[in-house]
């Protein structure tokens, strides 16, 4: 981040041979979901785990759910992927002709987890002495080699989708024709019309003072950006659509309504101080009818980062843990991943 009074190259517009994405400043995205599904199937269909005369084979990808995108933000490459996989396996013990079958469940393959932290659950379809031995083999030996295959997918994803995202500047001799990338998309690469109505258009009820046990959440998060960039990410329709990965309703004025995440979050703005403070009445859909919390987001730009402090009062005690986790996952982590305001994956 440049010091006050000094020129910041991020704001300098350079000429480009193709007049596209000047200085790599604009956020662009490639949908890597179809490629990822095909690659994961190729990596695992027929994959063998063999050692000590024991052999097990992945026979089928029973489930592959999720998405993957590659993004360029300010010349930085950011990869987002989240997969839930179920693999079927079959194996034989030495000297036996009887096949035993089971499954490998991988519920959390994502950029948030190191390969060693990815959970793999091994199960068998029918329990007996031989199948239990194969299950133990898949647990002790199979998990390691399956993680290696997952590592290949992540490596190839970054190699394949790095191409064409960082474009040449005016002095570059390399001529690269821009790929067909979208600037604002949903998580499944569906172009969003920012003038269209969101999929849910709920009316915001006034708080009615439900008698429930409540508590106050206080969170502090640091972002590698300027205060105005973070404020814009929270108040501009096209940017909110980007990090929530879906259509939204957003009226960033005092008394204006917002509806996010398919209607699971809604409320209205009570105060907006540009680049400094946002205050909202805010509720989750599953909360008691008519009950709203008060959310205050204080934004303060430091020397080398921007600090956001959240104070949320009136959160139902039974929902406090879930609400805090949702802020961290669906707001802060998603904002950092989408716009490059946190750690970069390159």
UniProtKB/TrEMBL annotation:
Citing just one GO molecular function, the answer is: protein-folding chaperone binding
Protein name from the UniProt record: Activator of Hsp90 ATPase AHSA1-like N-terminal domain-containing protein
For this chain's UniProt record, which GO biological process terms are given?
protein folding
Which superkingdom? Eukaryota
Domain annotation Activator of Hsp90 ATPase AHSA1-like N-terminal: ranges: 29-163
This protein's species is Hermetia illucens
Q: Which CDD domains match?
A: SRPBCC_Aha1 (cd08892)
Q: Which family does it belong to?
A: Belongs to the AHA1 family.
SUPFAM superfamilies attached here? Activator of Hsp90 ATPase, Aha1, Bet v1-like
Q: Which InterPro entries match?
A: Aha1, AHSA1-like_N, ASHA1/2-like_C, START-like_dom_sf
